[in-house]
Every structure is written in structure tokens, then in C-alpha cells.
Amino acid sequence: MNAIPNYFLISVSNRQNLDLCMRYSLAGFTSSINGFWTFVDINEGDYVSFLYGARVKNLYKVVKKAAYTGAEVLPPWPSVTFKMSGKTYYFPYRLYLKQERVLDEAMIRPEFAYVAENLLLRGGYRKTHFQADALTFHNVSNMGAIFTGTNENLDIHGEEFVPKIVFDKSKQEIPEKFYFNELLLQSLIKRKLPTIMGNILERLELNYGAEDFEILGEKAIPEGYVDIFLKLKHPVGTNKYILIEVKTNKAGEKDLDQLRGYLSEFENDSSANGILIAKDFSKKNMTKCENTLLIKYSFDDLNDDGEYSYEELLEKMELEIR
Questions:
Q1: Alpha carbons within 13 A on the beta-carbon side of 210
Q2: Does this chain's domain 7-161 share its CATH topology with 182-321?
Q3: What is the C-alpha separation between 297 and 319, in angstroms, rounded?
Q4: What is the DSSP letter of 5?
Q5: First to last CA, the chain
Q6: Of 42, 56, 60, 152, which is least surrounded by CB within 10 A?
Q7: How many alpha carbons fall within 13 Å on the CB side of residue 43?
Q8: Which of the following CATH numbers is that of domain 7-161: 3.30.450.180, 3.10.590.10, 2.40.320.10, 3.30.70.1450?
Q9: Secondary structure of residue 136 in the 3-state scheme
Q10: What is the pTM of this model?
Q11: CA nearest 226: which of 215, 237, 234?
């Protein structure tokens, strides 16, 4: 499942940062939870383009990920201070990229409809990265021209570190340690879902193989934001959708109502199913809901006082269909 690499559009805040990204084939993310989330959500082997001014810039393959201490003084991006909050952010999280194609395309092209709809319903960027579907990636892979040049090398003399995730908020030390939250949980679940996808399709009585579906990140719909969105890679005649709502703690009746609200957007399409994933469920949630599954997540042998890398938590994660 998800045999092809994932494709992301990385939102860039200003022209200067974009020029530096393209000059060095390098993406950087701030010392914030959104920056850390983007860093762990995009993997080596995935593909990215930069998104700036409603235009899509170039196509790159991610060849290395690294996090650096002392990033306040590391090139190429200067620290950023926001006037409203007074907080200063720098760029410890880096993706090293290999440029594959040269392109400069407007988002209004129909080939970008999947991402453009997300942007429109959000009313703007307000997000570090957007995951596109396989069709968008296929289209982008044929746009522009093959890159035959070379990019400048940037020597970064910084010490690398492995970011950790903690479950005791008092232990949070940004950017080295982040408190576990729903964004990180969503990313982990996206990576873990393929291990139980066959069982999910069987329980939902969907006559497809796990390899027929693609697992996508947050999807904007008029009712709100679906945390994880599954659809057929190559629909024929009609599509099949699975909408997943994720809760960090115990889920209650209001959470099921939220999921039902999202499913109502597909009420003219009987192919939509729902999944609610949570740490636990109230007793009211334990009854079977039509076209909906409950999945409990947990981490094997987890110490609440411990510190874990993203990959360690992924290895410990267990998903149990109720």
C-alpha cells in the first residue's frame, strides 16, 4: 500500500526563503510543533515541490533528513520573530533534496485540483505542508522539463541530533523534545495503517485490496477537516472513501457526531465509510455504528516519563479494531 512515494507541497512564507530553498535544494522548518510535524511527516524517498504565491515550484526528491543544534546561527535562513507573539523561530529541521524537474506552474491548473480545494476551503495557506494525491504527483512528474543542472552546495557545520517525543509536558524542551499531540499522532497512524488495512477493508466489507487505496493527510471539506483521508488510487466508475477522525485521548459521543457530520458531506455517495481512532472509548461508543469502525491505538511498553524518537514510537504503536 502506498507503494509509490508520497508527494507534498511545502508552503514557503516569503520570496527570500524560497530563493534560498531553490538555490541550495534544501527545505527548512521552524522550531515549532508545525515545523517538527512537517519534518517527521515527510520521509526520505518522498517528493516535494515548493508552494509560493499560488504557484508550484520545481520537483525534488528527499534524499536526507537532519536536525541541527545551534540552528540559530546556521545558514541559510535567518531567524524569524513574529510581532504579535514576540516569539522567535529558527530552522533546525532540514530536508536535503535532489532536483528532478524544473517547473513553475499556477495552482489554477486542473492538475492541482486536489490541493487547490484544500487551500480554498482553508481560506489560505495556514499550514506548513499539503499532501497531494497520486494523480497530482503523476501530473507534476510530466510538467516542465527534466533538471540537468547542478545546485550550489551549502556546508552546514552543525551537530545533528535526533528529536524526541515526550508524554510529560514538563519535559518538553523545544526543539529537541516535543510533547506528544494530535498532529504527531495523525502522522504515526498514517504510517501504521497499512499493517491493518486488509482487516479494515474486510470489516467494512469493501471488496478491494490494501494496495488499491492511498493514505492521505488532512482533507478540507465544507463541514471541517478530516484528519486522514483514504481513497482509491485509480477509481473506475466511482470512488471509495474512508474518512478517519483521530483523538489523542478518550473519544465520546460528540466525536462520533463529528465524524458523522463529515460523512454527511458524502451522503449522495454511498461509498463513504468512517473510522474513529482514539486511545479509548466511552461506553456509549462501544455499540457498532453503520459504515463506521472504532480503532484503539496504544504503544507497547511505553514509559510516560520516557523520551522516544518518532521511529521508536512507530515501532511501538499498535492499532486494534474494536
A1: 14
A2: no
A3: 5
A4: P
A5: 23
A6: 152
A7: 11
A8: 3.10.590.10
A9: helix
A10: 0.94
A11: 215
What is d(CA 20, CA 27) in angstroms, rounded to the nearest whole number? 9
Question: What is the C-alpha to C-alpha distance for residues 204 and 224, in angstroms, rounded to an integer?
Answer: 24
**Cβ atoms 67, 162 nearer than 8 A:** yes
Mean pLDDT of 217-221: 90
* Greatest extent of the chain over all pairs of C-alpha atoms, in Å: 61
Query: What are the pLDDT digits (tens) for 70-126?
Result: 999 999 998 888 777 788 999 999 999 999 999 999 999 999 999 988 877 765 556
The vertex-304 CA angle with 29 and 311, nearest 5°, equals: 45
Looking up cell 517547473 gives 103
Cell numbers linked to 169 = 509536558
Using CB atoms within 10 A of its CB, is residue 6 exposed (0-12), middle (13-18) or buried (19+)?
buried
Identify the CATH class of 182-321: alpha beta
Task: Read off the amino acid at residue 141.
Answer: S
